[in-house]
Specification:
The complex is a heterodimer of chains A (846) and B (92). With 846 residues, chain A is an all-alpha fold. Chain A is 63% helix and 2% strand. Chain B is an all-alpha fold and 92 residues long. The longest helix of chain B has 30 residues, at 62-91. Classes of the chains: A mainly alpha (846), B mainly alpha (92). Chain B: The chain crosses the membrane at residues 5-27, 33-53, 65-87.
């Protein structure tokens, strides 16, 4: 067997170890990982709690958005019904779609990742527990405040994809649209934080021996899911930023009379929006694969093909965004390309479906509640997939576009692809965190009510759409003959809701949350989350020798519980987990993890305050809240990345690993590279917007400032990187006193700010106003992005200088320093590229 | 085996797709667009072929073999998708 890191795989043969473990070891582990009690539970960061809170919050938003849907269905039950006025109806359908997509679907699967992944991978926790806590609180507070806007009539009303010009200030002058733009932009931060956490967690905290070919399919699915968030979400973040800038400051990105273009919004939104469907579907597909195997009591059929399907879906789903825009008048050839990609993406989805069917067929599935939800979900998803292939055909899409046929299609895909698998997962994994499993009898009632209700609601909607009923109308005339199918849909929605109410009763009667006294492996699962666990995850971290370790080694739970594998104790007396290599999962070093803290909670509250106060145009309080949020984040970081007394520790069977490692193989470095990818994607989308607007309206463009301005900009950015690099070099010199690394880094940050100042000054002197044209708006968008980055670098460098002055920088290398250095290098690179692009293209050639 | 080889096949598909989007946006539906689409398709299929020969020669333990098979299947799927993607320009 080859090695990835120099670790000798023969060392795995030392496990399980023999002999008794020292007394008090388990008690020490429990003490280290103990959760705070009472009100201090709000400061908890452990994934068992945060994951459960997260799932609960996502389900709450599912219920809230479902209630809105019921109101809508009653309104549409018969023609000219007057229960909901038109404006309220507009707010209801906008909030229903927005909440379901942004506050339920993505957070729910991310929540399951936070809850299940550490246990599945046998990690003590995800690698950045405080980030998980921050992401959760930001999502909960932001989401609730966003939803509350509906109670005061200020909820957004432009549809869940908020197309301008309808949502521009001319046609939506109230702050309703701002709630959407700032609220959703803010919640995306939470999603991205979770995605970074999940990628690093899956690739770096797997149990030793869990190579890529032994990873649970759910971990593969979450890996692709999180990578898609990193690539896809920046487009909508940029889009919301641009639309908000247009609304607040009159920068005409989407105004065709001044060189903007409303279709640009559609490109930005759907570059996120269609992959979003797969972002929701893939984790659910991962759950389905794992449950199909467990419930049929047989290994997954076609494991490699499923990985192939997940990876290829991750790519191809980024080639289908414009199939939502077939009717916008794109060039015929482009329409053909997107149509072809839309059909191609059904191939990997088909592979997964056939694999599930084969797995269920080759085993002996029991028809219990999770199996029913599984099979029901597959049936619904296939029906939605088939209508998806229909609307991928351009001529058919022209007929069905914006009709109820589309509403039916998307609900079939999302309910079959995500909601039913989620309910299956609730029943399947509830015994992992509840003292009692959920009721089988009630579960079957829940399934049949939901299954029948779902079909009765959405099957007739295909017909309603083909009969010509457009989506988003609040009522219709009696002579259109849409009444019968609409009434059927409303009755179906009631039955579906009855199923969900019954599920709530089941939860209330049987679900009793616990972290250490759960009902256990009721369905006979084969993966590591079914090991006996506490807040520290499993007592010791096993060596993984197959894909179904619990089936292949029945003694594993006992040996793990008796501490016969890796890390049976707390080696440093602190919270810790083993960082392993990304492909072969070989132990590399011990990560020291932070414990409970109130700072992530406060940071989330103040971040939410910043966005909400901005929305209601309370600018100064918003700035104060933003500064408070930054201070809270810095305070939370201040306690981390401290020197550890033991440079190396024994993680079991005499295997020694370091406790502090720096450089490209560290988990912090990986997280920073992912964050920079997110920022890089935002920048790439800004570049696309710039080039797109030039391509559409070149007559609005003017010559840029003199190219001589490039000299101070390039020099400033170069000096910033050079000084930061020099500081990093000087860290190795123990005796450096003057020009310490901290001072050099801060001076470098100052140079980046100066380069930005030169850039913005050149445009001010040039006279191009951001409100003058699409060119002005995009140039100032670049400057805004650069200004934000330069300010962040400066704050980070000041923070590092403060750590330096308190002797909190590790020598000869320091992780925090490395990360600030990386951020500074990226900022300089982006500053140079944006300065060159806006000056040299199109230059004077127009 | 490494990540670059594993994801290389689909990365070439992505390159091909975005190139086609660019071609369609700049040259719309004329003969130039069709010729460029054909050229880009040939280049990308050649890229897939080159990747295939590199991976074909790889050897190692069970994990390497698993990743090798996965990479080859991804290349096959990507090549098919590249060809399929070009049909609107080449066949219409």
């Amino acid at each position: 067997m080859r090695s990835e890191t120099g670790f000798d795989p023969a060392l795995y043969e030392r496990f399980p170890t023999r002999g008794e473990r020292p007394e008090g070891e388990l008690e020490e582990l429990e003490r280290v990982w103990r959760a705070p009690r009472g009100w201090r539970l709000l400061t908890v960061v452990n994934n068992n709690y945060i994951g459960a809170f997260y799932v609960g919050a996502a389900f709450l938003f599912f219920l809230l958005a479902g209630v809105l849907a019921l109101f809508m269905r009653v309104q549409l039950a018969w023609p000219l019904n007057g229960m909901l006025p038109q404006e309220t109806y507009n707010q209801f359908f906008t909030m229903h779609g927005t909440v379901m997509m942004f506050l339920f679907a993505v957070p729910a699967v991310e929540a399951l990742g936070v809850l299940l992944l550490p246990q599945m991978l046998a990690a003590r926790d995800l690698p950045f527990p405080r980030l998980s806590a921050y992401a959760f609180w930001a999502y909960l507070v932001g989401g609730l405040a966003f939803f509350a806007s509906i109670f005061v009539g200020l909820a957004p009303d432009g549809g869940w994809f908020m197309y301008p010009p309808y949502t521009s200030i001319s046609y939506s002058p109230g702050i309703n649209a701002d709630f959407w733009l700032l609220g959703i932009g803010f919640i995306e931060i939470s999603a991205i934080a979770g995605a970074i956490e999940i990628i690093v967690g899956v690739l770096r905290t797997r149990a030793p021996g869990m190579s890529l070919d032994r990873m649970p399919i759910f971990a593969w699915a979450m890996l692709v899911f999180a990578a898609m968030i990193i690539i896809g979400f920046p487009a909508v973040i940029l889009g919301t930023l641009l639309l908000e800038l247009e609304r607040a400051l009159n920068w005409p990105f989407f105004d065709p009379t001044r060189g903007g273009d409303p279709i640009l919004w559609q490109h930005l939104f759907w570059f996120f929006g269609h992959p979003e469907v797969y972002i929701i579907f893939l984790p659910a597909a991962g759950l389905v694969t794992m449950m199909a195997s467990t419930l049929a009591r047989t290994p997954v059929v076609g494991y490699r093909l499923i990985v192939l399907a997940l990876v290829s879906t991750g790519f191809i789903s980024f080639g289908v965004w414009a199939h939502h825009m077939f009717t916008t008048g794109m060039p015929t050839l482009s329409v053909g390309f997107f149509s072809a990609a839309s059909m191609a993406v059904s191939v990997p989805a088909g592979i997964q479906v056939f694999s599930w069917i084969a797995t269920l067929a080759s085993g002996r599935p029991r028809m219990n509640t999770p199996t029913l939800f599984l099979v029901g979900g597959i049936i619904i998803f296939v029906m939605g997939g088939l209508t998806g292939v229909m609307v991928a055909l351009v001529p058919f899409d022209y007929q069905a576009h914006d009709s109820y046929f589309i509403v039916a299609h998307l609900h079939y895909v999302l309910i079959g692809g995500m909601v039913f698998p989620l309910f299956a997962a609730f029943y399947h994994w509830a015994p992992m965190m509840s003292r009692r499993p959920l009721s089988e009898t009630m579960g079957k009632w829940v399934f049949w009510l939901m299954f029948a209700g779902m079909h009765l609601t959405f099957l007739p909607m295909h017909l309603t759409g083909l009969m010509g009923m457009p989506r988003r109308v609040y009522t219709y005339l009696p002579d259109r003959e849409w009444g019968a199918t609409n009434l059927l849909s409303t009755i179906g929605a009631g039955i579906l809701a009855a199923g969900i109410c019954l599920f709530l009763i089941d939860l209330a009667r049987n679900f009793r949350f616990t972290t250490d006294d759960d009902a256990g492996n009721v369905y006979g699962g084969s993966t590591l989350e079914w090991l006996p666990t506490g807040l520290y995850s499993s007592r010791s971290i096993p060596v993984v020798r197959s894909r179904d370790p619990l089936w292949d080694d029945p003694a594993l739970p006992r040996d793990v519980e008796q501490g016969r594998y890796f890390l049976p104790n707390s080696a440093t007396g602190l919270r810790e987990t083993i960082i392993t290599s990304p492909i072969r999962a070989e132990p590399e070093y011990l990560q020291i993890m932070p414990g409970p803290s109130s700072w992530p909670l406060f940071a989330a509250l103040f971040t939410a305050g910043f966005f909400l106060l901005l929305t209601v145009q309370a600018y100064w309080p918003s700035v104060v809240s933003g500064i408070a949020a930054i201070l809270c984040v810095l305070r939370w970081l201040w306690e981390t990345d401290r020197p550890v007394p033991d440079r190396e520790v024994d993680i079991g069977a005499g295997i020694m690993v370091p406790t502090y490692v720096t450089g490209p193989r560290t988990h912090g470095w990986w997280a920073m590279m992912l964050l920079l990818t997110v920022i890089g994607m935002i920048f790439l989308m800004a570049c696309f917007s710039y080039l797109y607007l030039y391509g559409i309206h070149p007559r609005f463009w003017v010559a840029p400032p003199d190219a001589a301005w490039l000299v101070p900009i390039l020099l400033g950015n170069g000096a910033g990187v050079g000084l930061a690099w020099l500081g990093r070099r000087l860290l190795r010199r123990e005796k450096t006193r003057l020009w310490t690394p901290g001072v050099l880094l801060m001076t470098g940050g100052g140079a980046l700010v100066a380069a930005f100042a030169a850039d913005i000054w050149s445009w001010r002197l040039h006279g191009l106003s951001p409100s003058a044209s699409g060119q002005g708006a995009t140039v100032y968008a670049f400057l805004s992005l650069q200004g934000i980055l330069a300010a962040i670098v400066f704050i980070m460098t000041c923070y590092m200088a403060a750590r330096n002055s308190r002797g909190l920088i590790n020598r000869p290398a320091d992780n925090s320093y490395d990360l600030v250095f990386l951020f500074a290098v990226y900022t300089a690179a982006q500053g140079v590229v944006s300065a060159l692009l806006t000056r040299l293209f199109p230059g004077t050639a127009f | 085996m490494n990540w670059r080889l594993l994801l290389g096949g689909m990365a070439i598909w992505a390159l091909h797709f975005f190139a086609l989007y660019g071609i369609g946006s700049i040259w719309h539906s004329g003969m130039n667009a069709r010729l460029l689409t054909g050229l880009m398709t040939l280049l990308c299929l050649a890229g897939e072929g080159w990747l295939l020969t590199r991976i074909w020669r790889q050897s190692g333990d069970h994990l390497d073999a698993w990743m090798r098979h996965l990479s080859l299947t991804l290349i096959a799927l990507a090549s098919l998708a590249i060809l399929w993607q070009a049909f609107p320009a080449l066949l219409s």
